[in-house]
Design goal:
Elements lengths: L1 E6 L3 H13 L5 E4 L16 E2 L10 H19 L4 E2 L3 E5 L2 H16 L5 E4 H7 L7 E5 L3 E3 L1 H14 L3 E3 L6 E4 L4 E5 L2 E10 L5 H7 L7 E11 L11 E4 L11 E4 L5 E4 L3 E2 L13 H8 L2 H9 L1 H12 L1 H9 L11 E12 L10 E4 L3 E6 L8 H11 L3
Parallel strand pairs: 1-2, 1-12, 2-9, 5-14, 12-20
Antiparallel strand pairs: 3-8, 4-8, 5-7, 6-7, 10-11, 11-12, 13-16, 13-17, 13-18, 15-16, 19-20
Helix pairs in contact: 1-5, 1-11, 2-11, 9-10
The structure holds flavin-adenine dinucleotide (FAD).
Length: 394
């Protein structure tokens, strides 16, 4: 019997395993991951941004953990020689309406205690000559890192502290009783005193498997990226973001320098018909049936018809995608948009069509389930792990 078992080898699961063993040296722990590598899903398919925490509802878990997580992630990366860079971020307003929203975002950043500077069009052009806008917010603390590498180093810490990590082990049954939790799948059966489930895109299914009476469902939203050619990699020095639409949980297509010296553009947000199918047009019949038959999704779709159709059109036709980026970086051309693998976001949606914005963590007497850990959960993984490890034995 293990003292602890963690399901999910993304950054949240691995960070949690590491934190549990830091808190309880000598405890036995098993982490099981169904893929044959760690960080195989969201953690290995994202923008690699260490967010600063400007956007989020003041007081929310996201607002608190993102700020703390940004600091801890940079410290962890520095301490373990993980390449990262604090390159700063510009949020660019391209018209009067966006400028208005930019001012509201400035207020929220200040409330959230994030350092932010308002700059005008001339200053924007001076700092980033290839970017245009009527004004911008500059967030100096935002950085970039490779979250797959962070996860691998966290996993090294888990193994060094005596934890077992088993890859290629899908859990298909969870049975909790008063003494223990039994988890099992084709690779084996294990008993544990406490269970933590950090299953990302499968979070709702794992919670149901464990008998949690949850109403929400995970809706997969594809985020499609392009890579700029190497000769365009120095087009911008900072991260360049649009001003987000406050009604949507996604931040909009942005230009992101990567730690290996590249420059990516993306991601958009299109409905996914396969939770783990990365190629365009990927279809998984069970996943598609569950989304398309879900009342909560119908409500989201009905309330966002125009946005949904626009995102779909821009996914099918690169010209539309390009037009979004050219609003703030007019010299980009179709030839600049080279293929790059997409990511798929796990977005929890309630039956009334509400998108769960904040991190959502539920528990049973012996288990903790992370039900919603969308962006910025990579940035926030270390504080989320702390949160879980603190409460696990209560
Ligand atoms: C396109 C995109 C861009 C993003 N950009 C950023 C960003 O710039 N900054 C940021 O902070 N966040 C970003 N995010 C969000 C961030 O990537 C996620 O919030 C974070 O990676 C979630 O980590 P996780 O461990 O919860 O999930 P995951 O990384 O998805 O890991 C869950 C793991 O559980 C495993 N699993 C599931 N079911 C089972 C089972 N039955 N048995 C065993 N294992 C199982 C899966 O195989 C998977 O490896 C982005 C996300 C996407 C998709």
């Amino acid at each position: 019997m293990y003292d602890y078992c963690v399901i999910g080898g993304g950054i949240v699961g691995v960070a949690t395993a590491r934190r549990i063993l830091e808190r309880r040296p000598g405890a036995s722990l098993l982490l099981v991951e169904k893929a044959t590598a760690l960080a195989a899903h969201q953690t290995g398919h994202n923008s690699g941004v260490i967010h600063s925490g400007i956007y989020y509802e003041p007081g929310s878990l996201k607002a608190r953990y993102c700020r703390r997580g940004a600091r801890w992630t940079k410290e962890f990366a520095a301490a373990h020689g993980i390449p990262h860079r604090v390159c700063g971020k510009l949020l660019v307003a391209t018209d009067a309406a966006e400028h208005e929203r930019m001012l509201a975002l400035y207020e929220r950043s200040v409330t959230n205690g994030v350092e932010v500077e308002r700059i005008d069009a001339a200053e924007l052009a001076r700092r980033e000559p290839h970017v245009t806008g009527v004004g911008a917010l500059y967030v100096p603390d935002t950085g970039i890192v490779d979250y797959t590498r962070v996860t691998e180093v966290l996993a090294e810490r888990v193994r060094a502290a005596g934890g077992d990590i088993m890859l290629g082990a899908e859990i298909t049954a969870i049975d909790e009783n008063t003494d223990a939790v039994t988890v099992s799948g084709p690779a084996g059966t294990w008993r544990t005193r406490r269970l933590v489930v950090c299953a990302g895109l499968q979070a709702d299914r794992m919670a149901r498997l464990a008998g949690l009476p949850i109403a929400l469902r995970i809706v997969p939203f594809r985020g499609e990226y392009y890579q700029l050619p190497p000769e365009r990699s120095d087009l911008v020095r900072t991260l360049i973001y649009p001003i987000p639409d406050p009604e949507l949980p996604f931040l909009g297509v942005h230009l992101s320098p990567t730690v290996d010296g590249g420059l990516t553009v993306g991601p958009n947000a299109v409905l996914g018909l396969a939770r783990e199918g990365y190629r365009k047009g990927s279809l998984d019949l069970r996943d598609a049936r569950e989304v398309l038959g879900y009342r909560g999704f119908h409500r989201v779709a009905a309330g966002n018809v125009r946005t949904g159709l626009r995102e779909l059109r821009n996914s099918l036709f690169r010209r539309g995608y390009l037009a979004q980026c050219r609003k703030y970086c007019p010299e980009l051309t179709l030839a600049d948009l080279l293929p790059r693998e997409a990511g798929i976001r796990a977005q929890a949606v309630l039956p009334d069509g509400t998108l769960a914005h904040d991190f959502l963590i539920e528990r049973t007497p012996r288990s903790v389930h992370v039900l919603n850990a969308p962006s910025p959960a990579a940035t926030s993984a270390l504080p989320i792990a702390d949160h879980i490890a603190d409460r696990l034995d209560d």
